[in-house]
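Marked as duplicate of an earlier ticket. Keeping the data here for the record.
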Amino acid sequence: DGEAQTVKEVTLENNLTGSVIGDKGSRIRDVRSTSGARIRIGDTDSAGSGERLITIEGTNIQCHLAEYLLQCCVQAYAMTEANNNNNNNKNAPPRKKLKANPSSQIEQSSYT
C-alpha cells in the first residue's frame, strides 16, 4: 500500500555525504521537498567505520522516491568525479551505491 507509513535505513560512505547534502544543504532540501519524506543523516561513522546511517520516513511511495533521488545524487557525483579524474579516459565511471543497513530491524531496500 502506497499510503502505509514506513521507515527505511540505508548507509552511505562518509566521503559521499556531500553529494547528498549539496551546497549549504540545497540538495537534501530538494530531495525532502520533492519526495515528501523525512530524511535524517547520521553523524560520521554512525553506521560503522567509514559510513553514515540515513533514515528515511514517510509513506512507501515517499520513501521509494527519496531513495531513488538520493541514489541519483550519488551517481551524479560519481560521474562528475570520474570525468574530473579521467578527462581523456572513455571508461565508464565506477558505480557508487547507497546500501541497505543489514543490522536494522527496519524495512530495508537494496540497490544494484
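See parent ticket for discussion. Confidence is low (pLDDT under 50) at residues 102-112.
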